[in-house]
């Protein structure tokens, strides 16, 4: 056999390679050897890969109401049903069930402990279907803590009662509502017990404007809510003389103080102007209130169908503490309150 030179081709059986070339590394088989894994699909028909099933439409665009059987939560469900009709969205009622405390389980039994809540839930379902026969209503019973159950819903809007009891466990619904508001990445509406689903609406949605914390998300939510119900917008800006100028520079003469209010009115007019162009069919009234933000917004919310405030979130999945203004509004506003998160 003649001597091999670099680049010379060597034939061995059915394999050919060039002398001096680096041989290819053998492919490892699925069993760890050097042989190839057997092809069990050869000769068989190729089946199409099944398409990934789409999630139900109701899961993507529902209005979700958290219900625990308390009067406050049932009232919130009534408001949520009316809002779902206005938005053209289905309604989902979520009832979270935590494990009973040992004392309650011994006294009531695991079935009787939740019997009263189940009975109210069935009554609520019948009432909603009778009142809104064309509204798709889904009842979902979720085991586990209510905060996680509610936040786990993929919905357009979350609705809760502003105060109540989370079942026989005895926790205040207020704590659940505040926890949901602080963690939610979607708007949350809190409804008080005094809401009457059969009463006519006032035809107004109030929203606050603050040049210290400007955000489009709460304003856009307010205008969409007003457009859906054919209501007007009450644009509110609370002007605090002490915060703006300090006590040392505040004049005592009220006529002079009214002149100091001019910049606040000009700010509100400029802030509302783009929204007038975007929603020409929605009427807008501007209201400048002198005083602290919390009491001013609470007063402005009287006689409205909804009061909208913003909530700055820290990041996805992180709890963000509520500001003192939002706290005051949630506890004392006479109307339903929408808390809209923003960055």
UniProtKB/TrEMBL annotation:
InterPro entries assigned to the protein according to its UniProt record, in alphabetical order: Rossmann-like_a/b/a_fold, Universal_stress_UspA, UspA
Bias type Basic residues, positions: 15-30
UniProt-annotated stretches for the region Disordered: 1-45
Stretches of the chain forming a coiled coil according to its record: none
Domain UspA: 62-192, 205-341
Top-level taxonomic group: Bacteria
Family of this protein: Belongs to the universal stress protein A family.
Protein's UniProt name: Universal stress protein
């Amino acid at each position: 056999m003649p001597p091999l030179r670099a680049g010379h081709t060597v034939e061995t059986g059915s394999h050919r390679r060039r002398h001096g070339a680096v041989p290819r590394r053998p492919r490892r088989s699925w069993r760890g050897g050097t042989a190839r894994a057997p092809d069990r699909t050869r000769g068989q028909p190729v089946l199409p890969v099944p398409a990934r099933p789409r999630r139900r439409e109701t899961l993507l665009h529902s209005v979700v109401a958290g219900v625990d059987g308390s009067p406050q939560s049932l009232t919130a469900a009534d408001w949520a049903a009316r809002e779902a009709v206005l938005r053209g969205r289905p309604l989902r009622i979520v009832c979270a069930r935590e494990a009973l405390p040992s004392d309650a389980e011994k006294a009531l039994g695991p079935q009787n402990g939740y019997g009263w809540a189940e009975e109210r839930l069935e009554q609520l379902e019948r009432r909603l279907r009778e009142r809104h026969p064309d509204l798709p209503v889904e009842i979902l019973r979720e085991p586990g803590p209510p905060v996680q159950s509610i936040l786990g819903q993929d919905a357009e809007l979350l609705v809760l009662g502003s105060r109540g009891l989370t079942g026989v466990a005895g926790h205040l619904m207020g704590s659940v509502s505040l926890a949901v508001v602080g963690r939610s990445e979607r708007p949350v509406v809190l409804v008080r017990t005094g809401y009457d689903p059969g009463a006519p609406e006032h035809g107004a949605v109030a929203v606050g404007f603050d040049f210290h914390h400007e955000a489009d998300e709460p304003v856009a939510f307010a205008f969409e809510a007003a457009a859906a119900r054919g209501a007007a917008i009450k644009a509110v800006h609370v002007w605090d003389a002490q915060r703006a100028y300090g006590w040392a520079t505040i004049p005592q003469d009220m006529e002079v103080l009214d002149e100091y209010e001019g910049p606040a009115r000009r700010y509100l007019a400029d802030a509302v102007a783009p929204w007038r162009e975007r929603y020409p069919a929605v009427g807008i009234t501007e209201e400048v209130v002198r005083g602290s933000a919390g009491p001013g917004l609470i007063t402005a919310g009287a006689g409205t169908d909804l009061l909208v405030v913003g909530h700055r979130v820290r990041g996805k999945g992180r709890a963000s503490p509520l500001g003192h203004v939002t706290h005051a509004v949630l506890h004392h506003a006479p109307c339903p309150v929408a808390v809209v998160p923003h960055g």
